[in-house]
Amino acid sequence: MKYWISLFVLSLWLWGCTAQQDNETLQDVEMGVSKELAELRSEQLTGLSYHLQFSIPDLVSQPIEGMVTIKGRQNEPGFLILDFQEGASKIKQVSLNGQLKPYEFVNHHILIQNPNNQFELEIQFEAGETSLNRNEDYLYTLLVPDRASTLFPCFDQPDLKANFTLTLQTPKDWKVVSGGSVSKQSVENEGFVMHTFNKTKPISTYLFSFAAGEFKERQASYAGKTIHMYYRETDTEKVRKNVRDIFRQHFKSVEWMESYTGIPLPFEKIDIVLIPGFQYSGMEHVGAIQYRQSSLILDASATQTEQLNRASLIAHEVAHMWFGNLVTMKWFDDVWLKEVFANFMASKIVKPNFPKVDHDLRFLTEHQPEAYEEDRTKGANPIKQELDNLSNAGTLYGNIIYHKAPIVMRQLEKIIGQRQMVNGLRAYLKKYAYSNATWDDLINILDQYTDQDLESWSYAWVKKRGMPQINVESIRDKENEKYRLSIDMDSMYKDWVQFIRPAIIQKEGSHEIELFLNDSTKTYSYDDYFCVIPDISGYAYGYFQLDKKSRLHLQKYLHLLDNEMHRASALIMMWEEMLRGNVYPLSMIEMLERSIVTEQNSLTKELMLYYLKECFWQYLTADERKTVGLRLETMLWVDMQKNEEVHAKAALFHTYVGLVTSQKGTNRLVNIWKGNVKVKELELSERDSIYLTMEIAVRDVKYAQNILQQQLLKIQNPDEKRRFSFVLPALSSNEIVRDDFFRKLKQAENREVEPWVLTALYYLHHPLRGTTSHKYIKTALQLLPEIQRTGDIFFPAQWAEANLNYHKSIYVERLVHELLDAEDDLSPKLKDKLWQAADPLFRAVEIRKIIKQSKEN
């Protein structure tokens, strides 16, 4: 560690030392919040409260003036060390206990000598804007994981919870929302209004938030609770069609969580803020959940997966009020703890609202493919990761946390039982309410409700990286002409105990058995078979290697399996086999082609369509795409026209648009955009029209630039117009224009709306642009440390993925390996993100080698 504060040095500060010693040691204060600093402050500081004041000017170019009053107790007199990730020039004045006080500013820390136990700090400052997302007519804060200190001076760590009050001065026509309700409003001079908010319950700094601006507002009440929704969507009919479900799902989620936990809503209120271009799908701020507007206000053509995703997202964020906000992880190495329970609860909450959906199938298709996407890579990480400094907390987020962890939690529930799980979680929430806890604290509580060795189980599944490889073989016994099912788990994973349910598909039907893999080998005897699907439970986890007979059977007959869980489970396993070179991409395409037209379940069909697009662009050569392209277009178009299920029709449409390569198909896209060709009974939204335009442009259609400009003029929503204008240069047929756009992305101010950047990068690197984007990749990947410093938590991984999207050349593979092999260019955690992002590239190159060797042999 380049800069670090040892507990010894900090103790010297806190118990007093000479001025000379102070001057020598102050320069060693580490950037960010080190674990050592966090632990010491946690021991020393109690009873914290913040009162914040911000004055929002009416011009985005003007600075925001702020003042914070921090009260608390320090166990021993000594230095107070606050965090402020801005320049010293933004600190205007510091007072301690009513007197102006000198201070040191070192590596984004404010250090103040406090001679007393009690303290009241008052700091006047200019607000930092790294995480204060300012637009012409609205702004919002987003302070997770360590970004509160980019906005105002504070003790920015999750286990120093505090009460927050806020006073916000804004232009008079602006709406405002924060963690507490508005208790007072007063009109100020020159058209400004002062809003005073109620005090919050104790919360971590990253959960403090406010939003203000030109928002529209709706509200609804149910069972004594009122929710306000703030939004910017200008299509009133679109809002009308969505608003009832949005409110209903929030109220039902609160009701379900109160019943499950036995604890009423732990905070004063839940309001919701819908933000265009929001960095995440949602963020669980106390009292004011923020969402990406397009995640909640859906188009009429929304697929079933999109509707389920909205319900799950709402349930996820509401569940955070208990898991994450009421009880918060002590340190961000346990950030997965709040996320796993939010997802785990969401899957339960959504069930009664969608009674016709097979929710075991939903759980399988939602989590397993996403978790495998990272866990199969060389950059795979444990669920619980080490963290030395909060500045690196953003690198902990990913599919392992959001998708593997819920699978593991579901296994835990099966091991100890649902009733015991409920009792254990209620005890956990009650014991640590408005405080902090670790994963081990939870395991210690759950241990009281089971005879299982949860500590060993937890070590394997939570603290070790990777996933078990489970080899499934059917061995024929010549004496009795039966087969013996041998399930052999790699010895290094023998402690990864779990339940699995193999399905043996035979002429007379299927036969399922449930096995508890608590050692390395299991066997089972049966008669002749067509194929064996190693697990159809929806909750087992690992790479299940199919035997050759099963692979060959599923390649031809997967679509004939009559059980939905069997088809979806086998589909996911066949995809994993393709990625490992055991099924050729063209064979995968043919299997999907047969299956899509017969699949009646929307969830499985949408997963098939996703795999079809990924296989087509990532794993087929250009010649192979020419061979199958027109056939696939025809299949998708015919299925789309005849399919009566609107969700499936919408999914088919989006896949068709993204897959077209023929001239006939391209002409059809233009005519759909013009309105000359209709998709039967499918209402296309403004977003659909924009999507069509972008896909037309990347195909370098004649007059594509005119089409783009016409589309820009047609867009009614001003936020959507800004988004489209931003992406336009990336769609240009002029390579010089695209080059200039990429150069501008090197500046942080041009990357502020991250979803817009990711859309632009998708088209910059689209396979139909050929090799013209190779020149961007080295610079883009070298920017990763800068992206981590300036972007939000998911952006480094998304940036790497977007810049490697669908690349499969040996040139790009070598370029990425050079960066991964370099000694000091990237931190270990960023290298893990790059390994994860580059995995499709590496597998595409390896698969071509396997095919070439096969042909030579």
From TrEMBL:
The keyword DNA damage does not apply. It catalyses: Release of an N-terminal amino acid, Xaa-|-Yaa- from a peptide, amide or arylamide. Xaa is preferably Ala, but may be most amino acids including Pro (slow action). When a terminal hydrophobic residue is followed by a prolyl residue, the two may be released as an intact Xaa-Pro dipeptide. Residues 1-21 form the signal peptide. Its EC number is 3.4.11.2. It comes from the Bacteria. InterPro entries: Aminopeptidase_N-like_N, Aminopeptidase_N-like_N_sf, Peptidase_M1, Peptidase_M1_aminopeptidases, Peptidase_M1_dom, Peptidase_M4/M1_CTD_sf. GO terms for molecular function: aminopeptidase activity. Keywords: Aminopeptidase, Hydrolase, Metal-binding, Metalloprotease, Protease, Signal, Zinc. The keyword Ligase does not apply. Residues 251-459 form the Peptidase M1 membrane alanine aminopeptidase domain. Its cofactor is Zn(2+). Residues 112-207 form the Aminopeptidase N-like N-terminal domain. Pfam families: Peptidase_M1, Peptidase_M1_N. Gene3D superfamilies: Neutral Protease Domain 2, tricorn interacting facor f3 domain. Belongs to the peptidase M1 family. This is Aminopeptidase N.
